[in-house]
Automatic annotation (TrEMBL):
Domain N-acetyltransferase: 186-332
PANTHER family per UniProt: ISOPENTENYL-DIPHOSPHATE DELTA-ISOMERASE (PTHR10885)
Keyword Transmembrane listed: no
EC category: hydrolase
InterPro entries xref list: Acyl_CoA_acyltransferase, GNAT_dom, NUDIX_hydrolase-like_dom_sf, NUDIX_hydrolase_dom
Annotated ranges, domain Nudix hydrolase: 35-164
Entry protein name: Nudix hydrolase
Length: 332
């Protein structure tokens, strides 16, 4: 990629629907109404979730001497978004990235165009970077607190979403609904999780005998509060949203309730919660759980899961007037 001189830089012109018009626009000239161009930013985070930031040269037009995210610039004519991002990183930092299989993490609209933001996870030795002296004064790694301090001090470009960038940098992949591969956390529930927990219960209540009525839901709520106080409630979180729930009894060495949000299944959520639960139960005693009997359509997935986790079918039982079966994880 050959650097383009600013006075020679041409941009592709887009419609408001981000369709190329076939026209080009010379940088520095005023854009016509209804014409737009493409800008890209690359935000590089290391494994400590620190953001690589650059200080712009004091003689640079546009936010001179200010600290900015890792890289940013306009796409030149002929470049698609990924190519433009690769070009800017190479020109400003001397770093080669392959973004051919990566889509922008999000896009911000502005008055004259579209601004694509790429979130990249990469540990980089900044001593090996080759900075573009015409644009970049220096670079450094900063955490969330320091970045926000710099912004409040008036020395960082005032991105209103700067704080949120660190949330995105702390995950691997995500989509518009917030589903984040690698960003799901498992831990003991707190009272802050209660409302979201009960929202999930509302979604899955048809699969749990006893939760068909409002009285049953209220009783469950009281049980949840008690279990949280005693650290016997485990949940999986996507951000602040509860996506998996598990109640267990230390006294009886058993699982009381286990459920996963329908849109978060097949992500090892249930097995991760059970692994955490096992650290609190007595491995010298059998661990039990009651689930649906064989032949009950509601129990196909749950029975298969417990067998996968090493539980074996045990005696037939009845729970809240519903036919169930006890599964046992044998003591060591």
């Amino acid at each position: 990629m050959v650097p383009v001189k600013l006075e020679e830089e041409l941009w592709d012109v887009y419609t408001k629907d981000r369709v190329k018009t076939g026209k080009t626009h010379r940088r520095g000239d005023k854009m016509e109404k209804g014409e737009y161009h493409l800008v890209v930013h690359v935000c590089i985070f290391n494994s400590k979730n620190q953001l690589l930031i650059q200080q712009r040269q004091p003689f640079k037009k546009g936010w001179p001497n200010m600290w900015d995210v890792s890289v940013g610039g306009s796409a030149v004519a002929g470049d698609d978004s990924g190519q433009a991002a690769e070009r800017e990183v190479l020109e400003e930092l001397g770093l080669k990235l392959d973004l051919s299989e990566k889509r922008p993490s999000f896009t911000m609209n502005f008055s004259d165009g579209f601004d694509d933001y790429y979130i990249v996870k990469k540990d980089i030795d900044i001593g090996n970077l080759h900075l573009q002296n015409a644009e970049v004064k220096q670079v450094k790694w900063v955490g969330r607190e320091e970045a926000l301090r710099m912004q409040n001090a008036g020395i960082m470009v005032p991105y209103w979403f700067l704080d949120k960038l660190f949330d995105l940098g702390d995950i691997h992949e995500f989509d518009a609904h917030g589903n984040r591969e690698g960003g799901l956390t498992v831990g003991f529930a707190s009272f802050e999780n209660v409302e979201s927990w009960m929202s999930l219960v509302e979604i899955v209540r048809d699969n749990f005998p006893g939760l068909e009525t409002n009285e049953g839901i209220e009783e469950y709520y009281q049980t949840l509060i008690k279990n949280i106080k005693e650290e016997r409630a485990i949940c999986t979180l996507d951000g602040n949203m509860v996506t998996g729930i598990l109640l267990f009894s230390v006294k009886h060495n058993m699982i009381g309730c286990l459920a996963v949000h329908p849109e978060y299944r097949r992500k090892n959520i249930a097995s991760r919660m059970i692994e955490l639960m096992l650290t609190k139960l007595d491995s010298n005693r059998d661990i039990s759980v009651e689930t649906f009997r064989e032949g009950d359509e509601k129990g196909i997935a749950s029975r298969a899961f417990y067998i996968y986790m090493g539980f074996v079918p045990g005696e037939l039982t009845v729970s809240l007037n519903y036919p169930t079966q006890r599964f046992i994880l044998k003591s060591k």
